[in-house]
Task: inverse folding
């Protein structure tokens, strides 16, 4: 039997607001929120930790029996949804257990990717091309609702590992996997000439690029050949090009 909530001050709805805006709240409670009917279907299909579903009264969906389901009036949904035009579905999921970093040849390491749209797009592309990804320090929360939306549900289908550069560097060294970095410098090699399938490649942050600490430790600097009048590429686009070349 579905619950029905009409008060905007209901504790569940207040919790949703906190989870949408605070990474600390998500980590403290072990929950995160996503929105949209399409993403809900992805979560139902792929995510074992679906916890609670909130639907507008005029929206229907087949929800597993073990999942708490709540209906609210449309105006209440509009008061809690992060979208300007809500689709009428919000849902809470349990955060996954922390996974250990396992180095793999032909993987991507993301260094300080802070824009949720960029991170979500990278994860979506990695899911499509079956490229393993690990997030280093400074990245946006992969369970931020903006990242989930930009990933088009890829977050529900793939392992999103979070680690540190120190741990990743040590593990790759022990596994004999060379680390390459995308960088604009005199020693950078055309990535088309590098054996990317055998490497772990670091993509740097939107504003600063790859940290100096990582640049100093990496075995190879890599460059994407492009018009010399262009200074750089969007981080998500650069990552997509690197991942595509990994598949060649």
Result:
């Amino acid at each position: 039997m579905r619950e029905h909530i009409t008060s905007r001050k209901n504790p569940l709805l207040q919790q949703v607001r906190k989870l949408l805006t605070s990474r600390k709240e998500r980590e403290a409670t072990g929950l995160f929120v996503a929105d949209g009917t399409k993403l809900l279907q992805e979560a139902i299909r792929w995510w074992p930790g679906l916890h609670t579903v909130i639907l507008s009264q005029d929206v229907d969906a087949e929800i597993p029996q073990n999942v708490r389901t709540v209906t609210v009036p449309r105006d209440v949904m509009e008061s809690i949804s992060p979208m300007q035009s809500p689709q009428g579905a919000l849902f809470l999921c349990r955060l996954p257990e922390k996974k250990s970093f396992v180095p793999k040849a032909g993987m991507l390491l993301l260094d300080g990717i802070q824009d949720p749209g960029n991170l979500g797009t990278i994860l979506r592309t990695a899911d499509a091309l079956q490229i393993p990804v690990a997030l280093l320090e400074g990245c946006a929360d992969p369970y931020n609702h903006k990242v989930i939306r930009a990933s088009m549900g890829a977050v529900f289908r793939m392992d999103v590992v979070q680690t540190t550069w120190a741990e990743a560097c040590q593990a790759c060294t022990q596994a004999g996997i060379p680390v390459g970095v995308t960088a604009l410098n005199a020693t950078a090699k055309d990535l088309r000439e590098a054996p990317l399938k055998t490497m772990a490649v670091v993509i740097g942050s939107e504003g600063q690029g790859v940290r100096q600490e990582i640049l100093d430790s990496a075995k190879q600097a890599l460059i994407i050949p492009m018009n010399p009048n262009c200074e750089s590429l969007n981080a998500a686009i650069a990552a997509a090009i690197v991942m595509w070349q990994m598949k060649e």
About this structure: The radius of gyration is 20 Å. The chain has a mean pLDDT of 94.
